[in-house]
Prior knowledge:
Elements lengths: L5 H8 L14 E5 L3 H13 L3 E5 L2 H7 L8 E5 L7 H11 L6 E6 L4 H9 L4 E4 L4 H33 L9 H18 L3 E8 L2 H8 L1 H18 L5 E6 L2 E7 L3 H15 L4 E3 L2 E3 L3 E8 L7 H17 L5 E3 L14 H9 L1
Parallel strand pairs: 1-2, 1-3, 3-4, 4-5, 11-12
Antiparallel strand pairs: 6-8, 6-11, 7-8, 9-10
Amino acid sequence: MYPVTSTEAGPAGASSGSEPAPPVRPLKILAAEDNPVFQSMLRTMLTKWGYDVVMARDGTQAWQALQSEDTPRLAILDWMMPGMDGVEVCRRVRAAGREPYIYILLLTARTESQDLVEGMDAGADDYLTKPFNAHELRVRLRAGRRILDLQEQLLQAREALREQATHDSLTGLLNRASILETLHNELSRARRESQPVALLIVDLDRFKLVNDTYGHLAGDSVLREAARRMKSAVRRYDAVGRYGGEEFLIVLPGCEGDTAHVQAERIREAVAAGPFVAGTHPVAVTCSIGVSCRTHPSVSETDPLIREADLALYLAKDRGRNRVEACPRQPDPPATEVPDLPSLAMAIDH
């Protein structure tokens, strides 16, 4: 389908001294070509240039390869192939909108400008006419690699921004907005699947004393270690977030009653398991935990769940700290009967 020009043979067979070093980590590349002779030639060239080559004999195989979990990041597609042509493969790849991005180069004997427009409109990134020069193919693939590298940097930057927007910078846990959103989503899912949900509010006991005695940097160290211990004590599908100051929210899908209490005790024991290091001083730190749960939850119960866990937490504080207390579900009281929680907390702390 595409004869090798005299200039193509040169670069392919040139000595390694005149060739740049191949990529350190082989990049997977798809080469879709129905002619066995040119399949072999493409495989030889691409392997020599340092790529991990995946061959496809027709458009259908190419499309299947580009849907795989470990899909190639670069693709060379012949325009005319059995089963599905290269332009149709391009359209399907772009319609799927997968990430990371797949850079596609079309090969064709067509030279009309309208063909170029059709191929690029279908989603191709570059276009090379046959017969082609091997060196030209190589530099076009290098340009594709540069674009993929830039896209990878953009994805990493986006992920870093997402991490900053959703996680607490000190502890690495979900931040307040994210843990509340997680609770909202979990209540919605549990409602659909008729599953229970439990919520824990965890408060480090007498944390203000740590800050006042050892300083705020030492307090930050205690918060980070407490977060690590709580994270290590929960199940992989539980969600832990920093609610504010030394308070944390933990969402427990599928838990109610005794099961939620057992999970809370495991977390309490993990926090109190050994001394924390505040600066250079070992400090014993404990926590109190309030538990609330719903057997048949609804999204509208987000605030009541938090309020009940809050009341249970203050009950744990009032009964001596370093303990777990649960709040039985009760009808929401009238506005005039809602306890003044800040005042109650202040009275207990004093």
